[in-house]
Specification:
Layout (H helix, E strand, L loop, with lengths): L1 H27 L8 H15 L3 H24 L4 H22 L2 H15 L13
């Protein structure tokens, strides 16, 4: 009976220790976790609703969105202290994403994507320097 109780206590201790070490490892490198399924679905649905994608396109776009979002989080974490490098890596990631989109989307959908989503990314400059300093 003592041997069984000692064995159970030993196993519980080892499992608890291993679990704590894994939590510490994930806390050290937050970029390793994949983006949440809800986040991937939201981004993909937004594009799907704007471009009227079919089911096959939706599935393929969801897969590349998953990769893009994971890589985006990784770049944000990895280059948090180097803004120039982060910007360069983000633009490289965006160009890779657009290349993949050009393989999935029809030419009409691709031009609509550029109109809708690129317009949102470019900041508008105030006319006559309104709202600015000077």
């Amino acid at each position: 009976m003592k041997a069984l109780l000692s064995t159970i206590i030993l196993v519980v201790t080892l499992v608890t220790s291993a679990s704590a070490q894994m939590k510490e490892r994930h806390a050290e490198v937050p970029g390793n976790d994949a983006p949440s399924a809800a986040r991937i679905d939201d981004v993909t649905r937004q594009i799907c609703n704007q471009l009227q994608l079919n089911e096959a396109q939706y599935i393929r776009l969801r897969a590349i969105n998953k990769i893009k979002l994971a890589r985006l989080d990784e770049i944000q974490w990895q280059y948090q202290d180097d803004a120039a490098m982060r910007t360069a890596k983000l633009s490289e990631l965006e160009s890779q994403f657009e290349t993949e989109c050009s393989r999935i989307l029809t030419p009409t959908q691709l031009s609509l994507y550029h109109e809708e989503f690129k317009r949102e990314e470019t900041p508008s400059t105030p006319a006559n320097n309104e709202g600015g300093i000077g």
